[in-house]
Specification:
Layout lengths: L9 H12 L3 H14 L4 E7 L5 E6 L6 H6 L27 H7 L2 E7 L6 E7 L2 E8 L4 E7 L6 H5 L4 H18 L4 E6 L2 E6 L4 H9 L7 E7 L4 E7 L11 E5 L2 E3 L2 H10 L12 E6 L5 E2 L10 E2 L2 H18 L75 H4 L21 E3 L4 E4 L3 E6 L2 E6 H19 L4 E11 L2 H9 L1 H6 L3 E6 L2 E8 L7 H11 L9 H15 L9 H11 L15 E5 H7 L2
Helix pairs in contact: 1-4, 2-6, 6-7, 8-9, 11-15, 11-16, 14-15
Length: 618
């Protein structure tokens, strides 16, 4: 039998490694930014074209590389970060496995220019699909410039699986923000298709957060700080009233490395328990510093997951630290051990009961009596006829018939037209003078020829609004109501860019926008079925739905927009509907093209015929 196990060629092995390291353009951005930081760069510029599909270029002013190092950097497992296995347990750098550049060069055209500060001449290397095309001296500024062109040019299947430019750019911005937040003292800039996306000067952590998420973020932040033997915690949490339904502003950093950890996220949520609005998520920017020997960061190819030696203690410290910060800044109640003891009840009075004050009234007092009321304890005066003389004069001038002055006076009827408070009838549903009923303020019951139909009011209204929005967006005939005063909403640059892309679709649903600048969106008109107070909720829900997947232009974008608006504007379970509203909803539902399912393909109604009801009573 012949041997069947063989060593893979280098170019094949590199492509397999690239499958783990380079999943999309954002993966390349992450690796190259981290390499620039490890090279002690103080200024880094990211240039992207076509969401990274055409070009990703990183220019830094770091240490640079010699000619030999420049060539060795593209070899597999070639690194300057570690020299032995023991170094894996004391890592203070971003990259350390030495597979990033080799993997990137295996699936793209790469051009590297680098120069050490002390050298006059630098090195230029060109690689295409792991093959070195050119290596020559060149004149270049000190530091490193690495350009990745035509990503996945030799793997068409991988390139076809990439999402739209909007989606890929969203992932690139996410990676850029994570690196920028972890290193506020580094000057960072990002450009996309020759347009500036970010220009972040060096500063402190708060300035960096405000620079990325907008000036309005400054008033939302609550500082968090704690130092223990296990961990040092610094950063900020966002005040509960500014929390969002999205997970977009949740950042954990361990030793200046962005991580994802559901366990620690639960600790933050526990600290905010009872403070967040319904379905809202806590937002935070938290930086944990621990001993590198107590964590393992090599358990995932992207190094975003970390294993801690003592997670339980970390959980307790993090939760108590955030609760203390919220209480310290009067966001939540806290036990105050520095209170003024003079305000406490003296210990000698702990067993004494408070005396209820007595209220004394004179039940004989008559405000219409000319004689002053008797004093307490005095005898009642005797009333004689002189006290009531002249009483007939009070009725002089009155006529038996109403005068002209009083003939037009109308009196309020004593007839009871309704109850001020709704009476409990003891039934599970409210009956109206129509053929519809509302059960538990959630379901609408209506009679049909064969029996009855039970409708989920929330899902049914979603279907009605969804088809209405689709029709308005397609036909571009929507009705708007103008606002007396424009509504100004604040969003960060990425959220605002997303809304600008969807501006035309939103306008076709009834929105009218004014100025869009300086991280603010001005709304001057809204759909007729929407109230002004609901506008931020609808837009926030839309951003939440588009957080992970920005749909391509065309029907999918329109469909997502219609679904999101229908979901946030539909009547909710628990809302009481009057008879006319129920009748209108039932009629509108069965006038839809697909009345049986909601936009998310969930059942909107069920039917029960007379035979099924008869069987229930057997």
């Amino acid at each position: 039998m012949t041997d069947i196990i063989k060593l893979l060629p280098d170019h094949v092995a590199n492509q397999i490694a690239a499958g783990e390291v380079v999943q999309r353009p954002a993966s390349v951005v992450k690796e190259l930014l981290e390499n620039a930081i490890d090279a002690s760069a103080t200024s880094i510029k990211l240039i992207v074209k076509d969401a990274g599909k055409t070009l990703i270029q990183i220019i830094d002013n770091g240490k640079g590389m010699s000619e030999t190092d420049a060539r060795m950097s593209f070899e597999r497992h070639a690194t300057s970060k570690i020299t032995s296995a023991d170094d894996l347990f004391n890592l203070n750098t971003k990259g350390f496995r030495g597979e990033a550049l080799a993997s990137i060069a295996a699936v793209a055209h790469v051009e590297l220019k680098t120069r050490i500060h002390d050298n006059d001449i630098g090195t230029r290397i060109e690689i295409e699909g792991s093959k070195v095309i050119t290596q020559e001296p060149c004149a270049t500024p000190s530091g490193t410039s690495l350009a990745v062109k035509n990503l996945f040019f030799n793997i068409p299947a991988r390139r076809n699986f990439l999402k739209s430019n909007n989606v890929e750019l969203r992932h690139i911005i996410d990676e850029f923000q994570r690196v920028a937040l972890a290193h506020p003292k580094i000057v960072l800039a990002m450009f996309h298709n020759d347009g500036e996306v970010f220009q972040l000067p060096a500063g402190n952590l708060k300035q960096r957060i405000v620079g990325i998420f907008g000036g309005k973020t400054n008033e939302k932040l609550v500082p968090v700080a704690e130092e223990t033997d296990i961990v040092t915690i610094q950063g900020f949490v966002v005040k509960p009233e500014f929390s969002k339904k999205t997970r977009g502003e949740q950042f954990f950093f361990v030793n200046d490395r962005f991580i994802k950890n559901p366990y620690l996220n639960h600790a933050v949520s526990a600290a905010f328990e009872g403070l967040l609005p319904d379905r809202a998520r806590a937002s935070y920017f938290l930086y944990l510093t621990v001993d590198p020997s107590t964590i393992d960061i090599n358990i995932h190819p992207t190094k975003t997951e970390i294993k801690f030696d003592d997670e339980h203690s970390l959980y307790a410290i993090l939760r108590s630290t955030i609760k203390h910060s919220l209480g310290q800044f009067n966001i939540a109640p806290i036990l105050d051990f520095d209170r003024d003891s003079n305000l406490d009840t003296p210990y000698a009075y702990k067993d004494k009961h408070a005396h209820t004050p007595k209220v004394e009234i004179d039940r004989t007092f008559n405000p219409f009596d000319t004689v002053p009321p008797p004093k307490k304890g005095a005898s009642m005066p005797s009333y004689t006829k002189q006290n009531v003389e002249g009483w007939e004069q009070l009725y002089e001038g009155l006529k038996t018939k109403p005068s002209e002055e009083t003939s037009n006076i109308t009196f309020e009827s004593d007839e009871v037209t309704g109850d001020l408070f709704q009476k409990e009838t003891g039934h599970a549903f409210a009956k109206a003078e129509s053929s519809t009923y509302q059960l538990n303020n959630k379901y609408i019951i209506s009679t049909i020829k064969s029996g009855m139909v039970i409708i989920d009011q929330h899902r049914a209204h979603q279907r009605v609004l969804y088809e209405e929005f689709l029709r308005n967006i397609t036909v571009k005939e929507s009705v708007s109501q103008q606002l007396l005063f424009p509504l100004v909403l604040s969003y960060n640059s990425s959220e605002l860019g997303l809304l600008v892309q969807l501006k035309e679709g939103l306008e076709n649903t009834g929105f009218v926008f004014g100025k869009v600048a300086n991280e603010t969106l001005e709304v001057t008109g809204i759909p007729t079925s929407l109230t002004e107070s609901e506008v931020p909720i609808v837009i926030e829900q839309l951003l939440s739905d588009l957080e992970n997947e920005v749909p391509d232009t065309g029907f999918s974008q329109t469909d997502t927009l219609a679904k999101s608006m229908a979901k946030s504007m539909a009547v909710k379970a628990g809302e009481r509907l009057d008879a006319s509203s129920r009748e209108h909803l039932v009629n509108s539902l069965f006038a839809c093209k697909e009345p049986s399912v909601s936009p998310s393909n969930r059942t909107t109604f069920i039917t029960m015929n007379a035979e099924e009801l008869d069987r229930k009573f057997k």
